[in-house]
């Protein structure tokens, strides 16, 4: 057994649980800000201006996968591999003479080095855009806006690097503070600029989004570079690229998997169907803000335990998290029609039929992330990319077949099928290709299949409130009875220091 496994580092389960709860709270608060401010934007902006600003944000999410080189996926494993020394792994590779400042760790050097790599690549892309972008613009934007887009993409990765670092150090207060500052500053500045620039409100909204994030990105960039003092290090770059580059097709495939539905509904149905589908999808995917927060808090603890060979505690605590995910999903599905009626006008109420399969698809993502975490830990990211591409292609085929026959609601079920297939692929990769048995796989599949069945049943009862809530209470009582010991263990874990 390795030295790391023998050391058995102090368990951080309590820290992970508390950070997970605070991540959930902050994500809900941030999402609430978005919901509260939505009516403000709809009164200040026309639909065309809103579409212009949202299109900018869409291109940020797409091109960020490429310009950031997906180096961020290497951080979790690098925290383990480069946590020991106080000098860079290869001093001759350090382009900044003198190495790190006193007290800096090898992980500090690694973080500043990958930041240097992504920013240099971002600058290269920016220069090419400035030189070769058409004078009348591209992507539906004028050339200055295109330049702003890629300049923003050059800076933006630094926020992710800082937040990932804080996450793996269990510093959730600072992490949440960064997100809250960006959210609040974006709202205030966007509204202010829209009022000050009535002749170009769409661009004002873009500036209101870019400026606060760019400011925070510069601060994060300086902080990471000051601690690491290592902008160019070939060993670190090679390490990060081996893990990150295969994740680029993964990221693009996941964007396709998440967004192709809307395009195909528009082509095969009409814009009314698009409006209903996206309205229901927005509600159904709200659960993702909670599951992502829990998953992000779990990753550092998972990596530490797997490095120590402690699969027993991984299996125990992860099972509790999966049970909680199933419970939350069923509760969410049960109350979804009332959420739809509260937030939307009556013509949109039909979108409630989309919510249950979308929420269940979110649960499948929550489950398959367990296997993705293992693939990342073992640096087998090429498998992640292949699996994502296969699932995206299958989703397109299923959409083409079933949307034509059953309408826009079928897209929600094909999305659920796509994410379930993706879980099967990641399970097969981890267990049968990598030969790693970490979880109670049979139990997980049983839990997921039963939850999908129960969630689908609740979704079919949306037209009858009394019967639906009676069924929901019965399911909740049964799960509470079955999982009462695990629930008690979870609350006990919260009390650990």
Could you explain the architecture of this structure?
The chain is mainly α. The protein has two domains: 45-245, no CATH class; 247-497, no CATH class. Helices cover 80% and strands 0% of the residues. The chain has 20 helices and no strands. The protein starts with a helix and ends with a helix. Mean pLDDT is 84; it is low at 1-9 and 85-103.
Main sheet properties: none
Which structural category do the helix and sheet elements fall into?
mainly alpha
Low-confidence stretches at least 5 residues in length (pLDDT < 50)?
1-9, 85-103
Mean pLDDT: 84
Total tally of structural domains? 2
Shape: globular
Distance between the termini: 28 Å
- Write down how many β-strands occur, each being a DSSP E stretch of 2 or more residues: 0
Beta-strand content: under 5%
Sequence of secondary-structure elements: HHHHHHHHHHHHHHHHHHHH
Q: Roughly what percent helix?
A: over 70%
Q: If you compute it from the alpha carbons, what radius of gyration comes out, rounded to the nearest whole angstrom?
A: 23 Å
| Helix segment tally | 20
């Amino acid at each position: 057994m390795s030295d790391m496994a023998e050391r058995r580092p102090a368990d951080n389960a309590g820290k992970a649980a508390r950070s997970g709860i605070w991540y959930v709270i902050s994500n809900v608060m941030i999402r609430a800000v978005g919901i509260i401010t939505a009516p403000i934007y709809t009164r200040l902006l026309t639909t065309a201006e809103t579409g212009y600003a949202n299109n900018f944000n869409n291109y940020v999410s797409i091109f960020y996968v490429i310009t950031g080189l997906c180096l961020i996926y290497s951080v979790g494993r690098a925290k383990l591999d480069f946590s020991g020394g106080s000098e860079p792994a290869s001093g001759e590779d350090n382009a900044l003479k003198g190495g790190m400042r006193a007290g800096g760790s090898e992980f500090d050097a690694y973080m500043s080095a990958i930041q240097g790599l992504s920013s240099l690549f971002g600058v290269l892309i920016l220069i090419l855009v400035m030189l070769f972008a058409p004078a009348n613009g591209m992507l539906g934007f004028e050339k200055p806006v295109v330049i702003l887009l890629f300049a923003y993409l050059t800076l933006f990765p630094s926020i992710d690097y800082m937040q990932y670092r804080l996450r793996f150090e269990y510093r959730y207060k600072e992490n949440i503070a960064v997100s809250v500052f960006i959210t609040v500053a974006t709202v205030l500045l966007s509204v202010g600029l829209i009022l000050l620039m009535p002749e170009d409100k769409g661009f004002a909204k873009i500036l209101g989004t870019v400026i606060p994030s760019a400011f925070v990105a510069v601060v994060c960039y300086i902080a990471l570079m000051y601690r690491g003092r290592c902008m160019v290090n070939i060993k670190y770059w090679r390490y990060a690229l081996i893990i990150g580059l295969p994740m680029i097709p993964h990221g693009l495939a996941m964007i396709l998997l998440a967004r192709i539905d809307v395009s195909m509904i528009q082509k095969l149905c009409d814009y009314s169907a698009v409006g209903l589908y996206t309205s229901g999808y927005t509600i159904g995917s709200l659960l993702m803000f909670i599951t992502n927060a829990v998953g992000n808090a779990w990753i550092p603890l998972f990596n530490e335990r797997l490095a120590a060979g402690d699969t027993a505690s991984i299996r125990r605590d992860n099972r509790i998290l999966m049970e909680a995910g199933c419970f939350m999903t069923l509760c969410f599905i049960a109350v979804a029609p009332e959420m739809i009626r509260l937030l939307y006008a009556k013509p949109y109420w039909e979108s409630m039929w989309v919510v249950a399969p979308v929420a269940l698809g979110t649960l499948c993502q929550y489950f398959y992330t367990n296997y993705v975490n293992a693939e990342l830990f073992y640096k087998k990211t090429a498998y992640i990319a292949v699996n994502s591409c296969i699932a995206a292609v299958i989703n397109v085929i299923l959409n083409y077949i079933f949307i034509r026959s059953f309408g826009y609601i079928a897209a929600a079920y094909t999305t659920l099928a796509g994410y379930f297939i993706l879980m099967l692929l990641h399970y097969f990769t981890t267990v049968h290709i990598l030969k790693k048995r970490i979880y109670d796989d049979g139990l997980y599949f049983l839990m997921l299949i039963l939850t999908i069945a129960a969630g689908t049943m609740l979704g079919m009862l949306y037209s009858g409130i009394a019967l639906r809530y009676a069924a929901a209470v019965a399911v909740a009582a049964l799960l509470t009875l079955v999982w009462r010991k695990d629930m008690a263990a979870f609350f006990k874990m919260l009390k650990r220091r």
